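Notebook p. 47: complex prediction with S-adenosylmethionine.
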Amino acid sequence: MISNNDKIAISDITENKLIEVINYTKTRNVKIDLIGGWTDDTTDSNILNEKYKLQIHKNSIEFFSNYETQNNPITIIFISHIEKCETAIKEIITYENIQIKSFIIATLPTTVYKTALIKSISQKINAEAHFISIAKGVGVAKGGLYALLKSDEIIWTYKDLDIDVKNELIERNINSGIFLDVGAGQCTQSYNLAKMGFKVIATDISKDAIESAQSSIKDVEIEFLVDDILDTKINEEVDYIIDRGCFHCIEVTDRKKYVKSINKILKHNGILFLKAFDKSCPLHHGPTLTGKIDIIDLFSEGFKIEKIKNSFITDGTGHNNNAVFAIIRCIK
Ligand SMILES: C[S@@+](CC[C@H](N)C(=O)[O-])C[C@H]1O[C@@H](n2cnc3c(N)ncnc32)[C@H](O)[C@@H]1O
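Predicted complex, structure tokens below:
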């Protein structure tokens, strides 16, 4: 995808994104020729100009009008919201004097439904379009998506309580107790549950996610904790666990460890509300997709599956991604 001496430009560049790209190319053992990029953020561009001696401009138009066209075609790396990539690519393909080798889109897996569209736009100028995921499991945390993107660019965040969880709580008349939100991300699920009167513990492997939620949520009490569910520090038992999108970040080989942790943390008769991308989801990379059968198999001992059905994970743009929703009771 990237070869030696490729000329690389980075869209929506920040220092973090630049470091991410440098690390990415290092792990692939290629020496790239970084020609600069563009960003809306003026503070970043000053730092980058001075510290890294890069040509950073306010937008692609300014960047390309200052760029001396050479024979070597350019590869453009995007680390940003997919809608933004799409708009920028449409703009870039209109610059007839610029030769583009490829577009590399490093973005969130839930946005892959745009793949075909972006590929067809690139084909118009004979450029390749590649998609790489930087949002898988620990990669989310260590790759720092929460640090890379602004909070409204984290596409999986949904501001309301998941509709299936909400309906189950109403139907079962559940309105008090301790809820653990595992892989809580920006903690919107925790927030809604705390508002409903639950005592909530919000955990995530990503320190950035927890710190940012902790500093922005002020009007309800939530216990925030940086914690890896595969090696959890949680010692107290809870009544309920909500998992919206964490399980599908867990590698298939680690799923048994996940189940063991859930069994340890839930009280006898406690309930796990689990929602994960379904196998029918048109995602080519990123999450480890789940089928009902996997869940039935994994939770066959120490649990009773009370409900399992096809559903959706609605992302922050309102797009519905096919998902499995399960209500799993812990039997100790
Ligand atoms: C798709 S996001 C969902 C976030 C949140 N539940 C929501 O609904 O917005 C998955 C989250 O799981 C977290 N995660 C991934 N692996 C984890 C692990 N081993 N332990 C705890 N959290 C993890 C990620 O950092 C990320 O915040």
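Notes: Residues 15-27 form the longest helix (13 residues). Confidence is low (pLDDT under 50) at residues 135-143.
Next step: compare against the earlier run before touching the bench.
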